[in-house]
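Q: Hi! First time doing this. I have a protein sequence and I read that you can turn it into a structure. Is that right? Here it is:
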Amino acid sequence: MEISAQNDDLRDLDIAIIGMDCQVPGADNVMQYWENLCNGTESLTFFTDEELRAAGIPEELLTNPEYRKCGFKINDIEQFDAAFFGFTPREAALMDPQQRILLESSWRLMESAGYQSDQYAGKVGVFVGTGTSKYLLKNIMSSMDLDSTPEIRQIWIGNDVHYASTMISYKLNLKGPSVNVQTACSTSLTAVVLGCQALLNYQCDMAIAGGSSLSLPQDSGYLYIKGEVLAEDGHCRPFDKDCSGSLSGSGVGTVLLKRLEDAVNDRDHIIAVIKGAAFNNDGSAKVGYSAPSIEGERNAIKSAQILSEIDEETITYIETHGTATPMGDPIEIQALTEAFSEATDKLNFCALGAVKANIGHLDSAAGTAGLIKTSLMLQKQKLVPCINYKETNPNIDLKNSPFYVNTRLRDWNPDCRVRRAGVSSFGIGGTNVHVVLEEAIDTRKVESHEEFQLLLLSAKTKTAYEEVAGQLLDFVQNNKDIDYRNILYTMNIGRKRLPYRGGLVCNSREELIHKLGASLPAVKSPNENEKEIVFLFPGQGVQYVNMTKQLYDTKPIFRHELDKCFEILQKQLNYDLRQLIFADQADAKGEEKLTETRNTQVALFAVEYCLAKTLMHWGITPKALLGHSVGEYVAACLAGVFSLEDGLRLMVMRGRIIQSLPAGEMLYVNMNEQEAQAYINGKVSLALINSENRVVLAGDSAALQEVVEQITEQREYRILHTSHAFHSYMMQGAVEDMLKVLQTVTFNKPMIPIMSNVTGEWLKPEEAMSADYWIQHMLGTVRFKDAALHLAQKNYKYFIEVGPGKTLSVFMQDNLKDYAECLLFQTVRGIKNTMNDNKFLAEFVKKAWISGLTIDFAKYYEDEILFRTPLPTYPFERKRHWIEAGKQKAYEAAGSNGWDRELSADSAEEADTIEYNRPDISVEYEQPDNAIEESIVEILQDIMGITPIGINDNFFELGGHSLMITQVVLRIKELYGIELQLKLFIEAPTVKNVADLVLEELSESLDLDAV
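A: Yes, that's right. Below is the predicted 3D structure, encoded as structure tokens:
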């Protein structure tokens, strides 16, 4: 089956697996897992007596001959990146590590598929399950008195199986159905079936499905008991005559599911396709509650096959439940044989495998471990060996079945020419699950007309940012078969923007490698605030032939908007603007024509309007507009004051009318408005006030020459290259004709706030809709400085020059010298800049994104055919958050309240909430300077596990939440005998604020009459 955008044969019932993540014994990620499977690795750890004693295993077990000193473990379960997910160290230490690894896995899963949850427009469902919290039973309960601790609610939320899915939904901002699944060993594959059903019912658009399970302590073996499910010899041997059971393992496995048609349309990386998925329960038709049932397993398998609508003979691999128990394996093979035999009598064509031999029985994660393995086999077109198998269990009749056990790594080339597989997972209690998979053949082809590609990187911390860049460099260097444009596309569209940011623009894989290798500095950027964006539109004088020509050639949205302008002008006024803007550069007359006012104004209007529409299409939306001279017409049109048709006609007619006036000149002078007033007379007007010491005078040439002669040598001045004395008394001759034109225009109230050139303040609706205003705009002074300062004073911070060059940016730099937080951007190169237009605009997008502006990358890339591809995921910076079993290292119930927690020297050294560096927040640390502040700091440090906390640190910025507030208020009541209202704490969430509230309450409680 070929999966491509042109494929019309996609079934409505097909579900794509577009992402996978796992951490299993011997492998911290999917690729390590695959390597181990190919190598036939048994990821079993054998423990020394010293390791087992250190883990708390009692001596009587160590000396018991039936104690097996081996197990399947995963790495660093005590580690967690609490800060990344917004947990305090104390919260993390009280949280079941099963939930922690499942949360991290879910984040990696979304990234592996090329999605960031915050920006995905659809709903993402979560269907996951965990095992019983052994951490709660063995660690927390042995170290704390749950009846007296004020953290009890927090402990239940962090450890109860009910909260695993909703915590993921909360932390990843996922708004589809969120369901905790509990069917014992089949939990995670049950979650997959539920996820498929939710997708087919359109309850969500993507679904996270999976599970996690941890055996504690990790460094421990097990006591063999004859007749139970744990292996006698310490090895899992599926289908083998020496089988005696499996071993418990630890791990997490998740998959991301999506309707196949949507995955194709969204250009996702499709790993495999789920053709059918079914589950059922045995009921009571078996020998006992925990026993398997041939009928139940057979029916689940057959149901999935029927739903898949495929020929059973094309299924050439089965990933079995494979627990290697003397009873379980024969029953499973009999159930499979019966299911297949209903449709075929063909023998020994379907390979069997069981991953429990490699990694142990992962309980709640077992099903997805098998699903991920099988999906990888389909993708890689390989059959991996089923290890620990030598001779068939005599109770299994493989010779007369459709099956054989595959014991070596080999190419998977079935006679039917399509690779299909089944995956089974059966739970104690009788929930049987089976899934039918099919390979997805990648026939996708990149189609990109962009010469310059953009890469954006970010991370929570500077060190993580460096790791992100390093990981990506290694990946690009070692995966030359992957189109580098897909890599950059996935990074830009599929990663959440975090505080430390950087980026680059390149036009080849080699340049990408060079720039990544040369180090890419990180900038800690401000929070996003799109309410602060202002578009600036320059006026006459910045134009040049072929301005934006390369954008027109390669940016469909820009070309579409500009073609619309060309068509309107050609149709209504027989005016060929295209030939004017994109003239032959060798043609001197073309340059000369563009400098003529009758052509310049409409050309700039069209280019700036279309560029603004392009930026807005990409999600960069202005909250205010400021044009310079004729640039205000662009602002007005964009704000809806008049239509595009009227705007273009206004510009053409305005240009022609002014062109017919007598010539004049304009003089730039380095002086302020007050100084310029000395030169104003009947022949000289104050045309422009661009900044404090940048003004332009306009008028008769002879009169301006007299001004030049009066200016002292210390003054900078120059005559500007203009055809007329704009914004001066010399425009008076255009008033009558311009009024006639304006009276034919339909005016509306502006939909976006505009700063007025005439007043230097907000353009009022009645002004915008008045022909008289636009006449005054033509005659009067452009008060750009006043308008710029007004915007800065209103806290607008992002100023984007939407037009050629950086003229307005220079003016703004002068005007904003007292507003350091303001940022200036340019979008189109000036006439002297030889950079490619597309590279210049890509550099702008990079800088804007780094600075906090939001880019809609779905729109940015909508005319490119690029594909998501699996890339290295976020490098979590884990720290130890752990409560040791059986050691009193939390709140000690010295009294009935549980607040007294004086620790011994030994326990203090090993405190479960070790001292952490204060997080990187928005204020500098300031130590307490009185006893009340010191007490509040101690309470917060104790509850949050953060040291040190300063008196100006915001409780919520440190990671606090409502449950913690309750604890803080209770502790303050215990210490001072006063009860603060929660509302007051929320409104004043710093140590200093709270200390002031405490002091105020204490003062009010004094009996002043008794003093």
